[in-house]
Amino acid sequence: MPDEYDKIREDFNPPERGRIFESGTNEVLGDREQGHVRHPDPRPTSLGPRHYDKERADDHGKIHALEEKSGQTGSANDLRELKKDRELLAAREIETLTIRTVVGEKMSPKYVRELSKLRDEFKNRVIHIELTRDQARVAFGKGISLEKPSPQLELPGVADVAREQVAVDLQKRKGKIATLAQARETAERFRAVQKFSQGAERGRKDAERAREVRETRENEQARDRELAKTAETREQIKVKNVELAQAMEDQARDINSAWDSGEAVPVEKVRDAHATLSRDLAEIREAELVQARDDFVASGHTSEEVRTIESRLEQVREEARREIVKGIDTLGVIVERGDNAHTERETAEQQRERERAAEREAARAQDAARQAAYERLDRQGQLTEAERLHWLGQGTDPRAAVRSPPAPAPSVERGGTGQGQGINRSLNPTREGR
């Protein structure tokens, strides 16, 4: 049912209602005393200009906008104005926004939601004031009176006073407009400085991002180069492992073939092979260790992480070539057995040589004694002719003491020291001799 507020507005169209309401609140609610200026210059936005009903500038030059809603709210234009308000608030074109509505006047749910979002985003910078219907009626009535000034008696001097008051009011309005213009200019200068500062900050951040991108790209390229280098090293190590396994297989085949044929294997040949293969194995182990560390460092692992798994990786590598290492160790055993056998033969030969020398010395002493006895008997004339001829026939041939031939070069027969052990083609250290 229409109330007094509805009745007082019913004779006016929407534009008139808005103008009258603004005039009334300007007086009744003290907007003019607070420094508000009606219908200020529109503020540009990306959605078009925003026209506020009133604005005022504070002592710091900040703009406070005021929007009056005397009737229904929620049209497409009202929603578009909220979007413009958000843009101006975000850019600090306006410091605060106050929206006045009247209790009981319809407000669309969508407008309520959008206004609530705006208040949530900008907090106390967005103010919603609801006037009671009595307050709205009083303000509207005041606006009507301002629209239709009542006639007054033409008393002497009253017209002059009225004109002077109008001039004073006009001057005050011009002053407020000038203040708004100055505030707008100050705000524009501030925005220019702010925009320059923001541009400089963006430039600094862009340069920083560009540097970070460049460093990241350089680090990635360096890591790719390291990975390519380690991949090449890894392939070289793989080839060396294959060559080592093949060399060990060749040695095992040659040794087993010689033993199968009943031939002895020269110790020096085995010694050279053992030294070469041992050196190659040591070089491969060192290269694998360095390559593994480089791989993990290039992949971003710390030195502590590398040390944690290094021993485990070494166990895995050694397990993979266990048979090769066993074969190389077997070559060392063969060399050791050959050296021991050679030493034993030399010792035995030296013993035999000492025994032969003692025998020769005993024989020479015996011959000398017999010779002396014959000579003595011969001088004494006690020898018969037959004994004398026999004595002459027993003369010692100086070539009788023949030296022993030199010992042959050391070699290893099946089993090395006669223990019946050998080396097989599967790189086992020993096998039973046949």
From TrEMBL:
Biased composition (Polar residues): 422-434
Composition-biased stretches (Basic and acidic residues): 1-20, 29-42, 50-70, 201-230, 336-364, 373-390
Region Disordered, residue ranges: 1-80, 196-230, 335-434
Highest taxon of source: Bacteria
Protein name: Uncharacterized protein
